[in-house]
Amino acid sequence: MTSEAKGGRGAQLKHTGLRHGWTTGACATAATTAAYTALLTGEFPDPVTITLPKGQTPAFALAAEELDDAYAMAGIVKDAGDDPDVTHGALVRATVRRLPAGAGVVFKAGPGVGTVTRPGLPLPVGEPAVNPVPRQMMRDHVARVAERYGGSGDVEITVSVDHGEEIARSTWNPRLGILGGLSVLGTTGIVVPYSCSAWIDSIRRGVDVARAAGRTHVAGCTGSTSEKTVVAAYDLPEDALLDMGDFAGAVLKYVRRHPVDRLTICGGFAKLSKLAAGHLDLHSARSQVDKGFLAELARRGGADEALAAEVANANTGLAALQSCAAAGVPLGDLVAVTARDEALAVLRGAPVAVDVICIDRAGTIVGRSTVAGPSVTRP
C-alpha cells in the first residue's frame, strides 16, 4: 500500500522568527518507528511521534509507506525549517525486516546513503554512513516498539534517501571518503537555522580523516580558489584540505584539541583581515572588514597619515590593499602575520605550527606570513 502526505513541520524559535527543523537522523528514526510498528501490527502510525535525545517529542507525517509479509517501509520528507540545508525536502526512507532472535539491530545503506571508505570517521570502514547518535535513536525506538507490540527487536534497518547520491556531490562526503550518498546525521535531532552545524561537523570529520591518513600538514581554506592556491604552494592531497568556509574558529578550536603538526590558513584578503582583527566567524552577516584596523596595520607598515586615512575611508578591503601596494606598504603581509598570530592565540599553545596566505579574487597571493608556533616544519 502507498500513501502521500506532507512531512512534519518545524516549530518557530523564540525571539528569531525562524523555524527550526529536523535532522536526517530524526527523520530516519521516525521512519524506522513507523515501519517497525507496521511490521508488527499491520498499521502505520501516521503521524508518528518520536522522542529526541533532549526529550522533545515531535510528530512526523508519512510521505510514503509500503507493507508486505517480509518488510515494511516508511518515508518522511525532511523539513530543515528555515536553515539552508541541502537535504531540505529530501525523502528519507527506512525499510525494516525481521532478523533471527539475537541478531540485534543491523544497519544497511540503501540508495542515496553513503558507505564509509576511509578511516578517521566515527564508524568503521565498510559501514553505512549512519552516525552513532542516529543509530542509537533508532535502536531505542525499535526497543520501545518491540516492547509495546511483542516483537523481538531483532531487525535490519535499511536507510535510503531519494536522490541522495546526487545531493551528496554538494557536500563534503566524497572528500571524507563517504561514497554513494549522504550521511545520516544529527546529535539532538533538531536543525537550528543558520547554526551551520553540519558544516562544522564536516570540518571536524575532515580533521579526523586527515589525521587517520597520517597527514601532518592540513589547510583550512575559505573556498575553491584558496584550495587551488594551497595545492599549488604545498602540493597537499585532497584529504588534507579543509573547506572551512567562514568558520575559522571551528577549525582552530578542533585542531587545538586534535593537533596536527602544521596548519595553513588560506583565504581572501578581506576575510582574513577579519581573522586578524579577532573574528572567528568570517561571514559577512556576522563580521565586517574593519578599515580602521587596516589603517592601523598600514601605519605599522610605514604608511603616512594621508595613506592611513585613505585606507580607513576605502570602499572595500581590496581597495585599501591596492592603495597600500601602490605606496609600497605590505598590507597583505601584515594582515597575514596578524591573522597567524590570532590563530596561534586561539590554539593556546597546542603543538600546531601555523602560516597564513591571503589571496585576491583571482587567486593571486597578496599576503603571506612565515610559519610560527610549535612543531615547525618549514619548507
TrEMBL record:
GO process terms (BP):
anaerobic cobalamin biosynthetic process; methylation
Listed A to Z, the keywords are: Cobalamin biosynthesis, Methyltransferase, S-adenosyl-L-methionine, Transferase
Which EC numbers characterise this protein's activity in its record?
2.1.1.195
Q: Output the SUPFAM superfamilies linked to this UniProt entry.
A: CbiD-like (SSF111342)
UniProt GO molecular function: cobalt-precorrin-5B C1-methyltransferase activity
> Does the keyword Methyltransferase feature in the UniProt annotation?
yes
Instruction: Identify the Pfam families for this entry.
Output: CbiD
Q: Which family does it belong to?
A: Belongs to the CbiD family.
User: Can you name the source organism?
Assistant: Streptomyces viridochromogenes
* Signal sequence residues: none
Q: Which InterPro entries match?
A: CbiD, CbiD_sf
Query: Which reactions are catalysed by this chain?
Result: Co-precorrin-5B + S-adenosyl-L-methionine = Co-precorrin-6A + S-adenosyl-L-homocysteine
| Coiled-coil positions | none
Q: Under which main EC class is this enzyme filed?
A: transferase
Task: Give the protein name, as stated in the record.
Answer: Cobalt-precorrin-5B C(1)-methyltransferase
Q: Annotated pathway, please? A: Cofactor biosynthesis; adenosylcobalamin biosynthesis; cob(II)yrinate a,c-diamide from sirohydrochlorin (anaerobic route): step 6/10
